[in-house]
Amino acid sequence: MIPAQFKKLLVALEHLTDKQTKDVEKFLKGDNLIQPIIAELEQRMIDEPECPHCHSCLINRHGKSAAMQRYRCKNCTKTFNAVTKTPLARLQHKEKWLDYLQCLINGKVLRASATDCDINLKTSFRWRHRFLQLSATMKATLLEADETLFARSEKGNRTLERKPRKRGMKAKKRGRSKEDWVPVLTVRDRGKHTYEAIILSVSTEQLNKELEGKILKDSVLCTDGFRSYIKFAQGNDLIHKRLDVAAGVQVIEKVFHIQNVNAYHSRLKAWMDRFHGVATKYLENYLGWFRFLDTNENPNKNNLFKAQQHLAGT
């Protein structure tokens, strides 16, 4: 660098903000996160090369864009990179992804996350729902099943056909009204493996649809006395332990109960309170967010990033 330009640079450094100063220090120390992130993303294409468009494994390198390797498929001739057709596609500022994931780990709201990562509020919203698309699988033998209800919310909808409700208003109808409540089915084993699904109703038909292929035959299913669970267990060759909670029967044979799943619902509801209501269309993403935090022994940004990478590879 020309000495005169270097002097101007030194003068400009005096006007940096505290955050900008820290960023410069990280850069000078070689603490640049973007290269490890890109390396992690592109490792999948090295281990299992596959075109996301036609799923052919015949691909060639095809230059670089935004510091990422691009590829070209020999079969369909389309170009792509390691995140094409994944939740991470077209997201920018990769160097801030891990910081944002840490905000997710800490359960921060959108505005606080945007401030901490120095990004726009709209970007914070977009990133949250991209990073929350985590997969969940469940194969277990001793299972607890129960459902919990969330208030139906059209938060953010500008084309409501009904009059909007104020926050905190009570539902118009008691019980499981489809207009006011959204049931969330939760099946959980003693090893913290959890499967959740937003369902239309707690019917035998819905249970068969959501849990098909997810529970091994001859598994032990612990539920309350709801009739749909009885028919579901009979139709799927499951050993059913039915608890008459209303009559005070909460444990059978000192082993079988649904306290685990009920405690999970209690923690979930308490955690969700910080968001002051979640739009129903995004509820599944928030369920996945909490599920990761609750079932991971060491929830940190690196683990969450690797979980997202696992989803990208499926």
The percentage helix is: 25-40%
Secondary structure tally, helices: 11
Average pLDDT confidence is 80
Structural class: alpha+beta
Computed Rg: 24 Å
Summarize the biggest pleated sheet.
5 strands, mixed
Shape type: globular
Total number of strands: 10
CATH class of the domain at 142-156 and 175-296: Alpha Beta
Fourth-level CATH superfamily of the domain at 142-156 and 175-296:
Ribonuclease H-like superfamily/Ribonuclease H
Order of helices and strands: HHHEEEHHHEEEHEHEEEHHH
Give the end-to-end Cα distance, rounded to a whole number of Å.
Answer: 47 Å
What fold name goes in the CATH topology slot of the domain at 142-156 and 175-296? Answer: Nucleotidyltransferase, domain 5
> Which segments are poorly predicted (pLDDT under 50) over 5 or more consecutive residues?
134-140
What is the strand arrangement across the widest sheet?
A: 6-5-4-7-8
* Proper CATH architecture of the domain at 142-156 and 175-296: 2-Layer Sandwich
Question: How large is the share of residues in beta strands?
Answer: 15-25%
Give the key terms.
314 residues; alpha+beta; five-stranded mixed β-sheet; three-stranded antiparallel β-sheet; 11 helices
Describe the structure in your own words.
With 314 residues, the chain is of the alpha+beta class. Among the domains are: 29-85, no CATH class; 142-156 and 175-296, Ribonuclease H-like superfamily/Ribonuclease H (Nucleotidyltransferase, domain 5). 38% of the residues lie in helices and 17% in strands. The strands form three sheets. It has a five-stranded mixed sheet, sandwiched between helices. It is globular, with a radius of gyration of 24 Å. The two termini are 47 Å apart.
